Each structure stands twice: as C-alpha cells, then as structure tokens.
Amino acid sequence: MSMIRDLRAAVRPSLRHPLRKPNTASPYANYDATRDPTAATAVVDCAVYRDGRRVDDRACLSPRGAMRQVRDGGGFAWIGLHEPTEAEFAGIAAEFGLHPLAVEDAVHAHQRPKLERYDDTLFTVFKTIHYVEHAELTATSEVVESGELMCFTGPDFVITVRHGGQGSLRNLRHRLQGEPELLAKGPSAVLHAIADHVVDGYIAVADAVELDIDQIEIDVFSPPAKGSTRGADTGRIYQLKREVLEFKRAVTPLLRPMQLLSERPMRLVDPDIQKYFRDVADHLARVQEQVVGFDELLNSILQANLAQATVAQNEDMRKITSWAAIVAVPTAVCGVYGMNFDHMPELHWKYGYPMVLVGIAAICFTIHRTLKRNGWL
Asked: Along the 377 residues of the chain, how does pLDDT read in single tens digits?
C-alpha cells in the first residue's frame, strides 16, 4: 500500500492542470517556481514599470521579485494571471495584501461586472465578450462567447486575472509599452486601458450581432421559399435573443462602475486618467442602448414571425373549410339518392342521372367562384 501511495504522490502533480500547456515563449519557461511561493504557474506575464518603461531585470520575473523592485526603486508592478487556483493565488494575495473576499471572487469567477474598494485596492470585474463566427445562424448557433477579467489596482501594482479562452491582454500590454508617457501615470492608466479594451470589444460584437439581426429580419419578412412554412425561423430568433441576453448581462451592470470611475474622485485614480474614463463610459452607454434596442427588436421580430405563422394557419384553415363546403354539395345529393326509396322525385326519369351531375357541378362551381372572389381560395 505504501508503494501505491508513493506512486500516486509522484503522478498527482503532473495531473494538476492537464489542459494547461506550458508557454515556452514566456520568460517563466525557465523560472524555478519552488524558490518563490508567489511565482504561480498561472502567471502569464509579470513586469515592473518605472517612468513609463518596462524594467529589464530578471528579478522582476516573479511577483515577489517585482514587488521588491517597486519598493526599492519605485514604479509599479503589473502581474497577469490566467485561471489561477486557490493555491496558486494564495502567495500573491498574501504578498500584495489582497482582501479574501476579492480573492475568492477572482479565483472562482462567475461574477457580475462591478467595482469594489478594499482599503487601498480597487477590485474591478469585467465581462469579456467575443463574437463567434458562423456560416449560417441556426437554432443552436453560439453567437457570443463570454469570459471574465478581474483587475486589482493598488498604489503600486496591477494584478489582472483572466478566465476563459478569450480576452488576452498581451497586445494591450505591448501597445501600452509603446506609450511610456501614459504608463507613467501609474496603475490607473492600466485600469483605463483595460476598460477601454473591453468596451471596444463590446462595440465590435454589437456591430456583428446587428448584422445577424438584419439577416433574421430579412428572412422573416421575405416571401417564404417553396416548400418552407411560416414560423420556421422561430428557433433562430429565440437563440439569437438568448445570446443578446448574455451580451446584455455583460454590458448593463458595468455602466455604474464606469460612471463612478469617471465622476467620483478617487485617490487611486490619477485625475488626468479620470477624464479618459468619461469617454469609456460614453462608449459603454452607446453599446448598452444598442443591446437594449436589439432585445426589443428581436421581441418585435419574434411576435411578427408568430403572427405570420398564425395568419398562414388561418389561411390554410379557410382553404380546407372552402373545399369542405364544395365537397358537401355532392355528398348531400348522393346521400339523398342513396337511400333506396321507391317513391323519389325523378327516380325513373331517363335524364335524371345526367341532370343531377350537371346540377352538382353548377352548384360546386358557383360556390368555388364565390369563395375565390372573397379570398378564401
């Protein structure tokens, strides 16, 4: 039994994150994490910025080393993590004095967008939205894919925690490193850049979703193709409405945090940077109006589609009723003459049979013409 326990202990560390592939391009590829409990494997990038420029020092490759560099020489540290576990985040949380409630939210995710303050740290939650390309919208198509991005902003550090396969900040970091005068404003400049990056993603997704809604609208109000029936687009409309609802859940709760960052003075937010948050709040408000409009428009399209299906069913019932009225005439006449009585009008008349056929045809023709003139056929 002891041999089995030893074997399990040797195998278990290698199975800890079976889906996470090592990033050989990262500076952490050759870093010995056992020397620093804060150097979690979930760290994507870690750097110290001083006077708006990245400090090129190997000591900055771990969160603890980066924080030591900040305390010794000034500047701020920016640490990026991707889906850390509690054990991986524990050392970083202790090093930077992060509040346990915020740490729990960052590790377990599934939070709504919000802005909270814990002592000298701002904790911001963003929902990232990615548009899923599809050749044709179906009743099961995934239109938007959501993720989460948490940001801890302190006087001399920024810690970003990302959940989901989308929303990478690598390009954003490289862009900011090309603007040292902006990075020199401190951690609040990074927070603004992240907020602007997320809202820009919302704008792109809103434009793409609008094209899907336009296509649905065209399909619903166009004449049905041969062999198709009205109401066939109901599943597609409902699926798109569900995807828009997911989009709405990401956009609407973020309005209040952006308004607070743009209007309320905060010690952790540089006054010059606060002006830029107003622009982000304006863009977010525009996207929110678009998403609300999408939801209302889809409601109208769904109701119109159901109304068209109801009208089509009524038309079918009118046609069935019209043909039943026409068929009722020969059924009634033939039913009368099929009763086999001896004393019936014109029963033994030589021209009785053809006259009955002519009478049935004349009555049926008259009924058919009248119904067609009234639009029932």
From this structure: 333 344 333 333 333 333 333 333 434 334 444 455 555 578 888 999 999 899 887 767 788 888 888 888 889 999 999 999 998 898 899 989 999 999 999 998 888 999 999 988 999 999 999 999 888 888 888 899 999 999 999 999 999 999 988 778 999 999 999 999 999 999 999 999 999 999 999 999 999 999 999 998 888 888 776 655 555 688 889 899 999 999 999 999 999 999 999 988 888 898 889 889 999 999 999 999 999 999 999 999 988 888 877 777 777 787 888 888 888 888 887 877 777 666 666 667 777 777 778 888 888 888 888 878 877 77
Count of helices and strands (H, E) across the chain: 11, 7
For the chain, the maximum distance between any two Cα atoms, rounded to a whole number of angstroms, is 124
Distance, in Å, from the CA atom of 104 to the CA atom of 123, rounded to the nearest integer, reads 12
164-192 burial by CB neighbour count: b if 16+ within 10 A, else e?
bebbbbeebbeebbeeeebbebbbbbbbb
What is the C-alpha to C-alpha distance for residues 279 and 276, in angstroms, rounded to an integer?
Answer: 5
- Nearest to residue 57, comparing CAs of 75, 40, 84? 75
Contacts of 306 (CB under 8 A, 6+ apart): 231, 234
Q: How many CB atoms lie within 10 A of CB 312?
A: 14
